[in-house]
Amino acid sequence: MKRLVTALKFNELDDEAKEKAIDDWRQHYCVDGDDLDFQLDEKFRELMGELFNRFKLSYSFNASQGDGVSFEGKIHDEKDLTYLANLVYKNKIPENIEKFINNNDIYTVDFHRTSTRYTHAQTVSIRVEGYAERDEEEDAVDEAKEQFEDDITEWYEDICYDLEHWGNNIIEEYYSEEYITDTLIQNEYDFEEDGTMI
Q: Deepest in the core among 43, 45, 103, 130, taking most CB within 10 A?
């Protein structure tokens, strides 16, 4: 004989049943991976502008040692290099770096993944490639490359840590009682009297 179940909405549950419903959601349905992907991509697009499609974003938020955010890619077009430099220097590119980009003495910035096991910022190394067309500028170009590499690395790590913090805040919101309650109410899910979702 079939058991008859009375379907209740979340607001109709008693406090104990509501707590069970929230805990069950937290355990089984809490993080919407597609929504998290979308939100991180949109945030990354906002930060990277025209260079968004030049990079592959990787992340993990599983509370393990390899967690974090990183991105990889290669920039080698003069226009893109100038755009990158404007991001790094907030539209105030040092004269020596701007000069060597324009002269093609600096011609590639490689964000190279060094580990496929983890996703944190330290799993990508940054290398600025180039050489002086004129012997007398060799030292100046090397100095500019080193400066640019250091400054890009600092900028890159700031972005990774900001995205990691931002992503963790999203996940914390997903797990919050208020967010789950709103989700259960807005989606009009049905529950048994004890808070089990039907």
A: 130
